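All the exercises in this workshop are built on plain-text protein records. Sequence and backbone structure share a record, each on its own labelled line. The structure tokens are whole numbers drawn from a learned vocabulary of backbone shapes. The record below serves as our worked example for the rest of this section.
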Amino acid sequence: MYPVTLGFEEAERRMAALTRHGHHAEALITSVFTFEKTLRRALRYCAVQRGFTSRQSKVLFDRLGFDKLKELWPVFAPGGQALAAYVGGAYWQHVPAAVTMRNKLVHGERVYPLPECRERTGQVLAALRVFQQRLVEDIGFDGWSRLPVRIKPALPWLGPGA
């Protein structure tokens, strides 16, 4: 929702402003999209670090939704942990429900009470902060910095004739 050039802190401030002004549904949508964007960029970073080109990492992840990104996380992540374990169960437990709420809100399938949206927004932001902190500690990437560029693949071909 917010461009990476703004930085995570500014995105956080804008989501807080949405909440402060009573736009709880918009804040929920934005917080889930921000988590998804951070996850996508972290996966792209990990793929490039593992030898994929920047273009390949873009093709791999740019059109995937939250559930597919979550499914691919252990393949590329350091340590191969599931995303729920990586973020921590106490924080993660609220994220899937928030993703479902976001999807239903965006597609006009359901309207949720604003206090519930406000509560979920806070939970998603808490999980996002933990996720971002773990990324910085484990891989040295916060999800919002400039992605590294790799033009030539560093993956060997292991098929017949190799």
In short: Helices lie at 8-20, 24-49, 54-61, 66-76, 83-87, 89-92, 95-106, 114-139. The chain has a mean pLDDT of 93. The two ends are 44 Å apart (CA to CA).
